[in-house]
């Protein structure tokens, strides 16, 4: 099977998301589609998978031009896609979700479906319980489910849009093994959209690069990462040295905190964070770091222990009390927790700007939005609905919404989905806040990000925490061992 994109163009209002793009995908290969945030990668992949129609151009399979009106049309021709934001049906079980979209009518043969599902999970080494509810699954598990569903529908070309954001290292290895086997043993075509160039080098054998909606070049892999970066941005980009600042008075004091959720219990967590300090939280997904960061933002009350902010007891205070004390939290699930789909950028500012008046000052909200969009280099306009921004631009915008002069800034995966240049930029902005005395605590799945930016690191494993304070111990290798419970 050979898929060709022929002269694909797509505009959204004034934005030229894809301009005259032609690419060829051969079977048995793993391709990378690369480019900066907003380059047009997701748009192109959505066109290829029938989720969006091109303004002009063709998707051609084995010489035949396809008429794609919906994702089901593409699946019928063997093209399936895993979207950047998962599109499943949370109130259903794994098995119910698995059979969604399949022929067989309203009463499918559940037993046969279950058997088929179990065979597939066995074959690919995915540990998925068919009777769990999808909203209880981690992002990595939801993704495994969607891959199995697409495979069971007979897909031969599998497109994955940033599949490794938000999954654990183990889940990533399992995923990569499956993708390699699908390409090399079963001659399928795999297309990966990713900002993690290490992943691209590990998995792919060919890269296509887009810049501002146009195809700008391709590379055989393996090749040096800086060459890919240069092709993506048109220039060489380096990570800057992080200046260390001297820390000030304690901002956050946590003593003997105990947290309990349905998944796990974390005990005896103590931590003092000072003005100007950056603390990285490391651990496998669901090891308690998410519960901790929510407990110190007033979203998740602790069972025991005390939380003080600037000396004041805030142990069971509400989210609003924490906000009033200068604590802000930026969660990871951009469109789920942080931003509100359907609202424009200006409406987001109108909601978050502090105001004593009972009405919204739209003129001010509009002005601030314009300033912030410019300052944070967000590709979008004040009246763009948030969901029309590219993934990376949503993240930039979420950061742009944060108020100045915070005491404590809590971030969950602050650079997830960002291209290299944007990630560097975001960290410059965050580190600049230290000058105002802001303390920063952030969760990241990228150990090199934790090592690069943290003054100290707290590692979560099996309900326990380990504080790494010595910079000599702060290496990707050592942290990796702590995360996996090996010391
Ligand atoms: N539904 C839409 N309405 C309006 N504009 C859109 C829509 N979808 C995408 N765009 C715009 O098209 C451009 C390309 O977006 P796209 O999502 O394809 O980028 P991307 O390369 O996937 O970026 P990222 O790495 O940030 O995910 C962006 O400027 C984006 O704002
Ligand atoms: Mg995208």
Features:
six-stranded mixed sheet, 487 residues, binds adenosine-5'-triphosphate, Rossmann fold, alpha/beta, single chain, 2 domains
Percent range of helical residues = 25-40%
The biggest beta sheet is recorded as: 6 strands, mixed
Which second-level CATH architecture of the largest domain applies?
Answer: 3-Layer(aba) Sandwich
- The CATH superfamily name of the largest domain is P-loop containing nucleotide triphosphate hydrolases
Strand order of the largest sheet: 6-7-8-3-9-10
Class from secondary-structure proportions: alpha/beta
Could you tell me the radius of gyration in angstroms? 23 Å
Tally of individual domains: 2
Average pLDDT: 89
CATH topology tier name of the largest domain: Rossmann fold
Strand content: 25-35%
Quick one: how many beta strands?
20
From the spread of the alpha carbons, the general shape counts as globular
Q: Given this structure, which CATH class of the largest domain is correct? A: Alpha Beta
How far is the N terminus from the C terminus?
48 Å
Each distinct ligand: adenosine-5'-triphosphate, magnesium ion
Number of helices in the DSSP assignment: 17
Query: Uncertain segments of ≥5 residues (pLDDT<50)?
Result: none
Strand and helix layout:
Elements: E1 2-12, E2 15-26, E3 30-34, H1 41-48, E4 56-61, E5 64-65, H2 71-76, E6 79-82, H3 94-99, H4 110-124, H5 139-152, E7 157-161, H6 169-184, E8 189-193, H7 197-203, E9 206-211, E10 214-220, H8 225-233, E11 250-260, E12 265-274, E13 278-283, H9 289-295, E14 304-309, E15 312-313, H10 319-324, E16 327-330, H11 334-338, H12 345-352, H13 362-375, H14 391-400, E17 408-412, H15 420-432, E18 439-443, H16 447-453, E19 456-461, E20 464-468, H17 476-483
Parallel strand pairs: 3-8, 3-9, 6-7, 7-8, 13-18, 13-19, 16-17, 17-18
Antiparallel strand pairs: 1-2, 1-4, 4-5, 9-10, 11-12, 11-14, 14-15, 19-20
Adenosine-5'-triphosphate binds at residues 12, 15, 17, 35, 37-43, 379-380, 388-393.
């Amino acid at each position: 099977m050979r898929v060709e994109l022929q002269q694909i163009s797509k505009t959204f209002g004034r934005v030229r998301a894809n301009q005259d793009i032609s690419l060829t995908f051969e079977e048995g290969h793993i391709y990378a589609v690369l480019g900066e945030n907003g380059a047009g990668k997701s748009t192109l992949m959505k066109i290829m998978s029938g989720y969006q129609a091109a303004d002009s151009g063709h998707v051609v399979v084995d010489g035949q031009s396809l008429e794609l009106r919906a994702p089901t049309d593409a699946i019928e021709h063997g093209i399936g896609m895993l979207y950047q934001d998962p599109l499943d049906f949370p109130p259903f079980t794994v098995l119910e979700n698995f059979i969604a979209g399949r022929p067989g009518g309203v009463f499918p043969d559940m037993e046969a479906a279950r058997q088929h599902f179990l065979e597939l999970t066995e074959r690919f080494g995915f540990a998925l319980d068919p009777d769990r509810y999808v909203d209880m699954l981690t992002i990595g598990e939801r993704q495994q489910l969607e891959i199995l569903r697409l495979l069971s529908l007979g897909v031969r070309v599998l497109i994955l849009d940033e599949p490794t954001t938000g999954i654990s290292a183990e889940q990533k290895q399992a995923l990569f093994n499956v993708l390699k086997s699908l390409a090399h043993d079963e001659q399928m075509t795999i297309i990966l959209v990713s900002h993690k160039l290490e992943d691209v080098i590990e998995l792919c054998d060919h890269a296509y690069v887009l810049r501002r909606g146009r195809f700008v070049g391709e590379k055989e892999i393996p090749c040096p990462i800086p060459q890919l970066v240069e092709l993506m941005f048109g220039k060489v980009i380096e990570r800057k040295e992080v200046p260390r600042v001297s820390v000030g008075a304690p901002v956050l004091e946590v003593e003997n905190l105990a947290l309990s959720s349905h998944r796990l219990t974390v005990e005896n967590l103590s931590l003092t964070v000072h003005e100007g300090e950056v603390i990285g939280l490391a651990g496998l997904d669901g090891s308690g770091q998410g519960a901790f960061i929510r407990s110190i933002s007033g979203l998740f009350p602790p069972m025991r222990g005390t939380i003080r902010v600037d000396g004041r007891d805030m142990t069971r205070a509400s989210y609003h009390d924490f906000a009033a004390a200068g604590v802000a939290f930026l969660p990871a699930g951009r469109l789920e927790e942080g931003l509100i789909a359907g609202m424009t950028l200006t409406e987001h500012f109108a909601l978050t700007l502090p105001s004593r008046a009972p009405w919204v000052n739209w003129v001010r909200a509009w002005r601030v939005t314009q300033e912030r969009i410019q300052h944070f280099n967000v590709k979008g306009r004040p009246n763009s609905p948030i969901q029309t921004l590219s993934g990376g631009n949503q993240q930039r915008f979420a950061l742009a919404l944060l108020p100045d002069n915070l005491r404590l800034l809590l971030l969950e995966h602050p650079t997830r989905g960002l291209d290299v240049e944007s990630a560097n930029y975001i960290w410059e902005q965050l580190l600049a806040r230290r000058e105002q005395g802001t303390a920063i605590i952030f969760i990241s799945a990228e150990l090199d990000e934790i090592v690069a930016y943290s003054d100290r690191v707290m590692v979560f494993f099996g309900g326990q925490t380990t504080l790494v304070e010595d910079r000599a111990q702060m290496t990707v290798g050592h942290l990796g061992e702590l995360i996996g419970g090996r010391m």
